[in-house]
């Protein structure tokens, strides 16, 4: 369809929903106390793993004095790899815990702002 110069026909906009139509809704639920429990469980698990690894290392140090040659070299190599993986595990767990704490802060803040918005409308 051609239009006269200087005239523009806007495209039709969809009509707003009627009172009988329902719009999709979204619900976000967050329980800060439960979230804190999960973070504590992660920290407790990390501490337990660290304790067991320390005990294992103490026991292996006692045996290591009896090793020589290839056995000692194999242990040194394996221990270096194991130590690196443990450091990586701790860093990963810390990053996950930090991200979970930040997400909790954002969710609590979003909930606070939504509540304030609803109160300002009423």
Automatic annotation (TrEMBL):
Region described as Disordered: spans on this chain: 1-26
Organism whose genome encodes this protein: Microbacterium testaceum (Aureobacterium testaceum)
UniProt xrefs under Pfam families: WXG100
Biased composition (Basic residues): 1-12
Name of the protein this chain belongs to: WXG100 family type VII secretion target
Gene3D superfamilies assigned: ESAT-6-like (1.10.287.1060)
Lineage: superkingdom: Bacteria
